[in-house]
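Q: Please design a sequence for this.
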């Protein structure tokens, strides 16, 4: 069979394109030996096509996911159909460096891959072609978007001043815990606390110092709790703490310990040393509480009872008759 000059030209173009196309092309035989390795693969792997020709792909790249890739290739051959894998499932097949100028900070090239069966004129499949697409730009923008969305989600749930849950997010947790109690009946308690005479602190020292006191209280609350508890800033100088798996006695102990820690703490702000106290109301959830808002009201009522009784103290509902703790 003779090849015309025209055919020879077309063939030359094809080879040229194969070498310069921005897609990785690898042809493997049925024993996974490399039959073709284009310019893209040479550039990114640092291995020339002569060096890899007829060599087993898995000997050349022992880090490849051998069992997975063999299974994929074998399915392509058996079913005579294409297979596709996305960077979202497997970020890359070959660990190539990232050469993109804009997304140059990505640790590696993200790749999509298609495996195609290569049929002979008689229809038999004796080779497959792996086509690797560099999708680093797409992957990086998607990952950046997901990160920004999750940061936005977090921000929308966080109180600016204290970095605790904001009121909306905290009330969401309160409703969730209420529903959990209705379903499983495990003990759960709520503490509402409020800084005593905070208006005086603000008026005497100014708003920024008041803010420092609020921040101080938030970090003290955070440090005193288990990470399964939910502290939140309910309003100005009022905070709420949901304590899952905690009965009224446990909650009273936690509230009392918090009260004492706060009463003994000092805040240094603007070259001032400030002491402050808090009043706390504690309410444990009972079967008689019809709604999460009633639970909140009970804790709030207890808080105001503590304020009424002289501040810097804990009041529980239902009342818990433990001996008063001395400072
Ligand atoms: N610095 C600062 N002050 C706040 C903030 N939110 C609310 N406040 C102030 O907190 C004060 C609350 O005053 P009151 O409700 O009278 O309460 P209180 O002075 O603590 O009195 P008791 O609760 O009865 O002990 C007001 O002066 C508010 O302006 C805030 O984010 N930062």
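A: Design:
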């Amino acid at each position: 069979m003779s090849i015309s000059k025209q055919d020879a030209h077309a063939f030359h173009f094809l080879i040229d394109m194969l070498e310069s196309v921005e897609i990785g092309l690898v042809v493997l035989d049925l024993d996974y030996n490399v039959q073709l390795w284009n310019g893209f693969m040479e550039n990114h792997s640092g291995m020339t096509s002569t060096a890899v020709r007829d060599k087993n792909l898995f000997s050349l790249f022992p880090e490849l996911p051998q069992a997975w890739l063999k299974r994929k290739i074998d399915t392509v051959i058996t079913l005579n159909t294409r297979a596709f894998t996305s960077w979202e499932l497997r970020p890359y097949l070959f660990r190539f460096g990232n050469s993109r100028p804009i997304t140059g900070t990505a640790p590696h090239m993200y790749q999509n891959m298609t495996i195609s069966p290569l049929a002979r004129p008689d229809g038999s499949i004796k080779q497959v072609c792996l086509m690797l697409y560099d999708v680093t730009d797409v992957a990086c923008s998607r990952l950046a978007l997901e990160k920004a969305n999750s940061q936005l989600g977090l921000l929308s749930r966080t109180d600016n001043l204290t970095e605790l849950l904001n009121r909306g997010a905290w009330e969401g947790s309160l409703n969730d815990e209420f529903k959990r109690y209705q379903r499983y009946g495990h003990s759960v308690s709520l503490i509402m606390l409020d800084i005593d005479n905070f208006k005086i602190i603000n008026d005497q020292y100014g708003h920024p110092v008041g803010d420092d006191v609020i921040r101080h209280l938030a970090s003290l609350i955070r440090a005193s709790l288990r990470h399964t508890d939910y502290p939140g800033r309910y309003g100005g100088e009022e905070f709420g703490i949901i304590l899952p798996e905690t009965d009224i006695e446990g909650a009273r102990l936690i509230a009392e310990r918090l009260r004492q820690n706060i009463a003994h703490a000092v805040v240094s702000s603007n070259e001032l040393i400030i002491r402050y106290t808090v009043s706390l109301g504690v309410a444990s959830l009972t079967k008689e509480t019809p709604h999460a808002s009633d639970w909140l009201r009970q804790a709030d009522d207890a808080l105001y009872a503590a304020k009424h009784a002289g501040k810097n103290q804990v009041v529980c509902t239902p009342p818990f008759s433990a001996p008063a703790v001395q400072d």
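Q: Thanks. Anything notable?
A: The two ends are 104 Å apart (CA to CA). Residues 161, 194-199, 202, 207, 210-211, 214, 236-237, 307, 311 surround guanosine-5'-triphosphate (CB under 6 Å).
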